[in-house]
Amino acid sequence: MAEPVSVARNVIYCGVCTLPPEYCEYGGTVKKCQEWLEKKHPNMYERIWSPEVLEAATASLSLEAQERAAKDAKKKAAKAEAAEQKHAQQLANSVITIKRIERNKRKYVTSVSGLEAFGLELKKVAKDFGKKFATGASVTKTPSGGEEIVVQGDVSGEIEEFLLEKYKDIPEDNIELVEDKKKKASAG
Amino acid sequence: MFKKDLGASPKQKLKSSIQRSLRNSLLSTYPLLTPHIDEVLPKKSSLEQVKLPDRVSLYVIEGQPLFYQQDNAGFLVPHLRLVHRFPQAFPTIRIDRGAIRFVLSGATLMAPGLTSKGGRLPEPKEREGEPVAEGVPNEGPDEEGRWSRELEKGEPVVVMAEGKEEACAIGLLVMGTKDVKEKGKGPVIEEAHFLGDGLWRLNVE
Ligand SMILES: [Zn+2]
């Protein structure tokens, strides 16, 4: 028996605002959406944003409706910009802590916390760490109720380098390297 | 209905008896989905439930949202991403261009956005050709985008938009389409799921 052919459509969604690109005009990120579409799907960009199409679109609205729509779009753009600024501010204040922890004499693990503030999915990043450093890496709960990644071995420096390399929105100043020495009963 | 960002409970696997009954009720609400049901709900993958605020349950397969339901009763309503994959399976109406931005900001859909020149409401007529599957009604849109059957109050309906290819909203009719044409005013869909709303943005992967 032949497999039935799939009829499901595969719709393209905007990489910036997530809507079907023909609806980008209603979001507050039109400029960015356009740049994305022009780069990724130039044909679709032509179809949606060509001057003829735009003219036909506005022609069907009354002058008053056009003015209201333009005002609305401006408001949305301002709102989106404010949200973006707030987000940038939040990022600037977020710190990723990479901590070297001594488990036994000369046996170390490295914990990484604060990644979620940069929109990273801990499970995925842990997997990447495991692959990159050929070691065990897992997501564990912290006593304060959050989550962190614990990597086997002392790989603090490598992790910092890897994060800066792979995730360009993380500023170097926002990564903190600390050390947690096991307290030993020292003689004397 | 989902104007704000949603908090969601962890995913929960559903018993196969519940999966079966959801499959049946999906098919009885949307008979036009019959030829595609094994693609929507692949036999091998398991359906999961995510609980949302206001007693809404969202059903998910392999990180893809499929449909939602309020109060474990009432109609199953497809997520817009499912509508985009199988647009031919759901009855539609169409709003004019001017109404799009209102619907996308969560406003109630009003009759004038449908009765105007750019809008489309059903126009009952016999359709030629065979139905998509045995025992399934022969329904669909004409070339103008007018559905071939009047839609009743309470029925789920997909909202298309003038000049656009993809659906922009879906919801339950608070007024039958025949009444919409006769009265020409008043609310038509109140609590819609629309592009860019909290349900659209919810990540269930
Ligand atoms: Zn966009």
From TrEMBL, chain A:
GO molecular function annotation: mRNA binding; translation initiation factor activity
Main location, first listed in the record: cytoplasm
Location(s) in or outside the cell: Cytoplasm
Lineage top rank: taxon: Eukaryota
Coiled-coil portions: 56-90
Record-level GO cellular component terms: cytoplasm; ribonucleoprotein complex; ribosome
Pfam family, one: SUI1
A Gene Ontology biological process term: formation of translation preinitiation complex
Keywords: Coiled coil, Cytoplasm, Ribonucleoprotein, Ribosomal protein
Occurrences of domain SUI1 (ranges): 96-167
Matching InterPro entries: DENR/SUI1_TIF, DENR_C, DENR_eukaryotes, DENR_N, SUI1, SUI1_dom_sf
Subunit text: Interacts with the 40S ribosomal subunit.
Domain notes: The SUI1 domain may be involved in RNA binding.
Protein family per UniProt: Belongs to the DENR family.
Official protein name in the record: Translation machinery-associated protein 22
Automatic annotation (TrEMBL), chain B:
Keywords: Cytoplasm
PANTHER family: MALIGNANT T-CELL-AMPLIFIED SEQUENCE 1, MCT-1 PROTEIN
Function as written in the Swiss-Prot or TrEMBL entry: Involved in translation.
Cellular component GO terms held in the UniProt record: cytoplasm
Alphabetical list of Gene3D superfamilies matching this protein: 3.10.400.20
Region described as Disordered: 114-153
UniProt-recorded name of the protein: Translation machinery-associated protein 20
InterPro entries tied to this protein: MCT-1/Tma20, Pre-PUA, PUA, PUA-like_sf, Uncharacterised_CHP00451
NCBIfam families for this protein: unchar_dom_2 (TIGR00451)
Any matching Pfam family: Pre-PUA
One annotated GO biological process: formation of translation preinitiation complex
CDD domains with a match to the protein in the record: MCT1_N, PUA_MCTS-1-like
